[in-house]
Amino acid sequence: MNFTAAPNGSNETLYWARLALYPLLHELSTTESARFLHSITSIQLPKLFAYLHQNRLDQLWREYLSSIECPAEFKPWLEASKKQALALAAQQLKERHALGELHQLLEHHGIPYFIFKGANLRYTLYANPTLRSSCDIDAYVPDEHKYDAIRHLAAAGYALEVKPQNAANQASLTRGTIHIDLHWHLLRPGRLRVSPEPYLFSNRQPFVDGAWGLNRQASLFVMLIHPVFTKHLASPYSMTMHMVDLHHLLAVDEADWEAVVRQVADSGAKAAAWSSLLLLRLLGDEAAWTRRARYFEPGKLRQRYLKLWIENDLVNRWFDRRFVIRGLFSLAMQDRASDMRRALRVLRKIRKAAADDTRRLQEAVYAGK
Predict the structure, then answer these.
(1) Cα separations (Å) of 287 from 258, 291, 296, 315?
(2) How many helices (H) and strands (E) does the chain have?
(3) Which position among 128, 172, 232, 259 has the lowest Cβ density within 10 Å, counted as fewest Cβ atoms?
(4) Distance (Å, whole) CA 223 – CA 269
(5) Residue 284 CA from chain centroid, whole number
(6) pLDDT band at 167, cuts 50/70/90?
(7) For the whole model, what pTM was predicted?
(8) For 37-51, 85-99, 191-205, which range has the lowest pLDDT when averaged over its residues?
(9) What gap in Å lies between CA 289 and CA 276, rounded to an integer?
(10) Sequence-separated (6 or more) residues with CB below 8 Å from residue 223
(11) What's the CA gap between 194 and 177, in Å, rounded?
(12) What does 221-286 look like in DSSP terms, one character per residue?
């Protein structure tokens, strides 16, 4: 792949993502690495390094550059990233302690839970957890336990923050440098045809210090659909790191894959999963597309429509017109017209209840005091 010239315009975001992921999605020989790094001009380097940091890929690149004969122009950045790795390791030690504390707290009070996404995947996908950074701990509890979980975390020193637009499915709790996103629905209610909660809890497993996380099968289900609905797949809020996770998760055995396919279909999220695989293909993973995409193919017309959005990076181009993206892109991820109607119907209810939901969550902090 030729990276000698960065385009200007609609495909620039995809260009930087392809460039950043090229050595992470492919096993490059010494000659291929030398040719690849030589194709990156000195003018491009500052923007590449900024992109790696913004998308939490810098430590994976540090490992890559440390494994080869690093070109001179990369060495200052490599040394700086090594220093950053020490700070990252220190923060992850704090987060690991918080995971153990969270496990003991919720188990003690009989609240079922699991950790998912980055804080779980760094231990289950990567030999060195410090290579996979995350900005928070995503924890899931059943809806009927959300107030108790918030109350006990507040008693442990966490400060609650609730955004009214998210009050139906999640809230944030912070203590110092530890940030917990507490979820009681995987996505905003109404997005999925059936709740994936029973499936997710049936695929829990201990992953570090006894804390409950998801196994690879359930994590693959989450990463196929979650970034599509919550981050519009490829928006400025979506981390390219998610594509690295997905690339690794797709190497599941066929029994696990068949279970994921069933769960995606039952959830009415085949178009979302197909779109994730399309983006992964555009970023360089042709093998995953060839092997997996056919299981989720939407109709021909919808395929052309979604390709128009994703291949032309329309989400980033129109991101300041969020209502357009929600109406013309996110809604197209619902598999059937009935799924679209349900999503809109439930959204109207959520918006009407947002103030009351926010108030009740805030009141949970003081309940029992």
Answers:
(1) 18, 6, 16, 25
(2) 17, 7
(3) 128
(4) 12
(5) 18
(6) very high
(7) 0.94
(8) 37-51
(9) 10
(10) 117, 242, 245, 246, 249, 276
(11) 35
(12) HHHHHHHHHHHTTTSTTS-THHHHHHHHHT---HHHHHHHHHHHHHHT-HHHHHHHHHHHHHTT-H
Tell me the C-alpha distance between 108 and 94, whole Å: 21
Can you tell me the distance from the alpha carbon of 59 to that of 77, in angstroms, rounded to the nearest whole number? 11
Neighbours of 94 (CB within 10 A): 12
pLDDT at 314 over 80: yes
The contacts of residue 168 (CB under 8 Å, 6+ apart) are 185, 188, 189, 350, 353, 354, 357
How do beta strands 137-140 and 159-161 pair? unpaired
Band (pLDDT 50/70/90 cuts) for residue 93 is: very high
Question: What residue type is 88 in one-letter code?
Answer: L
Q: Are strands 137-140 and 178-183 parallel, antiparallel or unpaired?
A: parallel
First to last CA, the chain: 62
Comparing C-alpha atoms, which of 67, 38, 99 is closest to residue 59? 67
Instruction: Print the SS3 string covering 161-176.
Output: ECCHHHCCCEEEEEEC
What value does the mean pLDDT take over residues 142-148?
Answer: 97
Backbone angles phi, psi at 67, to 5 degrees: -90, -5
15/1 Cα distance (integer angstroms): 11
The tokens of 79 are what? Answer: 């040394």
